[in-house]
Amino acid sequence: MTSTTDDRPASASANDSGADGSESHGRAAAARQAFESARERTAAAYTTARERAGSAYETAGRKTSEGIDSNPVAAVVGGLAIGALVAALLPRTSREDELLGSVGRKINDSAREAANAAKEAGRGQLDELGLSRDGLQSKLNEFTDRAVGAVKSSAGAAAGAARRGGDA
């Protein structure tokens, strides 16, 4: 007689397979059912996520288009700023230096001169308004002197009122 792994005779194992077979068939059916259910839920979740992503993409595109239509100058300025930022972050190539070297230096020099002129013009306007460093220090000192004077006068008035109240 041949033995199985649980040391029962093969004939005994074959006789028990009827009960175990229907039980394993039931488990297989339950596993299949669980798999199908999980697959359907996953497919539904994927479809929902895809629809939401498409909707968000359309909404973003529409809002961007509306923003550009309502303020095209800001869109151009923003695009130029992004382009300048990207250009500043990317290293120059030897081919760029070869082709645009002198032009690039002229543009840099012109831009530097324009920035310095704007800075000086801004300083001039701030000085006219009294917003230079010395002007601000002067205004701060004046404000402090006035505040101290106000505190002294109110303290004197309070002391006088207290004396008059004490005399009564």
Can you give a write-up of this model?
The protein is mainly α. Among the domains are: 1-51; 112-157. 89% of the residues lie in helices and 0% in strands. It is built from 4 helices and no strands. Helix 1 (10-70) crosses helix 2 (72-89). The longest helix has 61 residues, at 10-70. The N and C termini lie far apart (128 Å).
Radius of gyration: 43 Å
Tell me the total number of β-strands: 0
Number of helical elements: 4
Give the overall average pLDDT: 77
First-last Cα distance: 128 Å
Low-confidence parts, pLDDT < 50 over ≥5 residues? 1-5, 8-17
Q: Could you estimate the helical fraction of the residues in percent?
A: over 70%
Run of helices and strands: HHHH
Largest sheet: none
Please state the structural category: mainly alpha
Strand content: under 5%
How would you name the oligomeric state of the polypeptide chains in this document?
single chain
Q: Can you give me a brief rundown of this structure?
A:
This protein starts with 9 loop residues before the first helix and ends with a helix. With 168 residues, the chain is mainly α. Among the domains are: 1-51; 112-157.
Give the secondary structure arrangement, pairings included.
Elements lengths: L9 H61 L1 H18 L4 H35 L4 H35 L1
Helix pairs in contact: 1-2
Which terms summarize this structure?
disordered N terminus, mainly alpha, about 170 residues
